[in-house]
Amino acid sequence: MNFLDLEINQKNYIKIIVLSIFIVALILVLYYIELLVPKKFTLEETTTVADFNEQEDLVVHIDILTPPGKKMEIVGYAYLTDDEVFTVDCSYVLRNKESGEMYLLKTRHEKNVNVPEVYPYAGMHTRFLTLGIEKGNYDICVLYKNNENNMFKNTGINVEI
Question: pTM for this structure?
Fold first, then answer.
């Protein structure tokens, strides 16, 4: 008896369809949550680390920071003065002040009206869940890797999660 030769009555057919839809929805929800939960991160040895007042040619700024909760949002920009951007690879990073542990936030790039027009890729926007992050006081930093640069700079803003 082959599987294809079996007759499926309407009741079983509806159960199979509902179960399939449920499984697909569950996979999409888990994938979405996985995208929003930050991953732990360590800097490469070749990364230039700067505090907020150092390395003034790398401009970093935060325009919008939502209050800490289960979900947070950060909007801002980062650009290196007098440097045309050819490859875009910038991300926000949360760095724990006490332990030094860091979380890389998935960041997308968008136009920002506060940035000079010669830096069209400087705008940064991230949304993330705080569920996977341990409680503590965090500095918000920027990992700037545009045009083969490798810089890490503190924005001067911290947040309590």
Answer: 0.76
